[in-house]
Amino acid sequence: MSPEERADAIARAHVWRAPTVPVARASLGRDAAAPARMECRFKIADTSGTTPKFQCVLESGAEIRTKYSHVPEIPAEAAATRLLAALGFGADRVTLVERLRCYGCPPAPFFTMRVADATRTQPVVERVLDPEKYEEFEWVAVEQKFEARPIESQAGKGWGFFELDRIDDAKGGAPRAHVDALRLLAVFLAHWDNKAENQRLVCLSRTWPEGTPCPEPFLLLQDVGATFGPRKRDLEGWERAPVWADRATCTLSMDALPYGGGTFGSARVFEPGRRFLVGMLEQLTDAQLTALFADARFDQPHGMFTTRTHPVSEWVRVFRKRLKALSEGPACPAA
Fold first, then answer.
1. pTM as predicted
2. What is the DSSP string of 225-241?
3. Residue 157 domain-assigned?
């Protein structure tokens, strides 16, 4: 895809779809049908980022990405993706699994593959792996991709938040209210690690002939583990992080967060977008929020050097406090 074709897809992109289950009845906890234990077979694949992860294949043939180790990114991503999906925004599906058995896995798959990448010894690693031996991992995040074909250009993958300004409702793109709601939700969650590869541009159309423009371009958030606080699942930091850069002008910014808020920059939102997001968030009950944080294990220790935890009720309290900062105050400009 050429840069011009990608620009056209961005201009016509949407960011929100009406959820199939009304927000007030959405299940924000762990799926009752989700297995407590899973088995898969290790797949050699390129590695990226800093969170320990690997690719593996289920017996059904479905490929999954698994994040392991006791890092705060895992509960944060589990909760953020479930909230995004319940509200109608695009996100991959992340499920916490109590125990995963991986056949053919080396003892430390992420670091093994990082070394293999650096030393170009992947073929050697592949030969020495024993497909009958296995490694077991506890409380892993199993990620299944949002079902849609990616739209990729010669310039690269993903999209930055500054590109939301290029969506044009006159060309069939998302209305400004939906775009502003996505911006507000990103700030609400403190989604500061929003480099382009952490978002994805996809085509919702199942039949999309090669060489023709995608009929339904859609922007979604791909990696949302750096949320709920500047240090990922960081209650005090999340409570302190401002929702508004300037409430009087309804201006948003994540400049005070790590990396200056990544690609977010500064953006002004309008009243229809504020009311649209607040209207959805206010439908969530304390029982739903309790399930969201409890089933994502927010009250359990995560992090090599962090053992301090907070009860789920505190996470619900801060969620409500941040929602109050969004909902109260004078109306933003109408347009």
1. 0.91
2. -S-SSTTSS-HHHHHHS
3. yes
